[in-house]
Amino acid sequence: MSTGTILALVVPAAVLVVLIVSSFALDRRLRHRPREPFGPEKRHDSHEIHPLPDHVRDRYVREWQGVQKQFVDRPEAAVHDADRLVTVLMRERGYPTEDFEHRGGDLSAEHGHALERYQEAHEIDLLAATHRATPEQLRGAMVHYRALFDALLSGGDQAGP
Fold first, then answer.
1. How far is Cα 40 from Cα 48, in angstroms, rounded to an integer?
2. CB 47 within 8 A of CB 58
3. Are the C-beta atoms of 97 and 89 separated by less than 8 Å?
4. Which residues neighbour 53 within 8 Å (Cβ) at sequence distance 6 or greater?
5. pLDDT digits (tens), the chain, 161 positions
6. Closest Cα to residue 155, out of 50, 68, 80, 54?
7. In angstroms, how far is the first alpha carbon of the chain from the final one?
8. DSSP string, the chain
9. How far is it, in rounded angstroms, from Cα 119 to Cα 113?
10. What span, in angstroms and rounded, lies between the C-alpha atoms of 145 and 158?
């Protein structure tokens, strides 16, 4: 056998051995690294989510009623105010509200059923800001905000208003 033939057999085998050893080393490193504690459940558990006193709940109910009344004459503004009110309520309950992505992730741990509707409502709010939302979309957004509002207001332990 010539040297070229031997090299042609040895080099691919060596590359294969290096790849196998590297994949085992990477797999071992990944298995033994510290776990990321920031999934929605862990992030949610790290916050002090608390129920609201009755007088605070009553104040939010009155504010929501004002937002609903506004919908008749100013639906786009009402949707925007509903988004703002839900965000303020989240903050008061102890949820972080820095950005929309974190809001959704943190809500999914306790209010997963309302999360998708909240995302839809928020998208409609963005459309409404540029006057591109239809009346049906605006109505739908208010319904979605109301569902999340009720879930947040009840704290998961009692019925909404």
1. 14
2. no
3. no
4. none
5. 666 666 566 556 655 555 565 555 555 655 554 444 444 444 444 468 889 999 999 999 999 999 999 999 999 999 999 999 999 998 999 887 776 655 555 555 555 667 788 889 999 999 999 999 999 999 999 999 999 999 889 864 444 44
6. 50
7. 88
8. --HHHHHHHHHHHHHHHHHHHHHHHHHHHHHHSPPP--SHHHHHHTS---PPPHHHHHHHHHHHHHHHHHHHH-HHHHHHHHHHHHHHHHHHHT---SSHHHHHHHHHHHHHHHHHHHHHHHHHHHHHHTT---HHHHHHHHHHHHHHHHHHHHTTSS---
9. 11
10. 18
């010539």: which residue's tokens? Answer: 2
Structure-token match 């009553």, residue found = 58
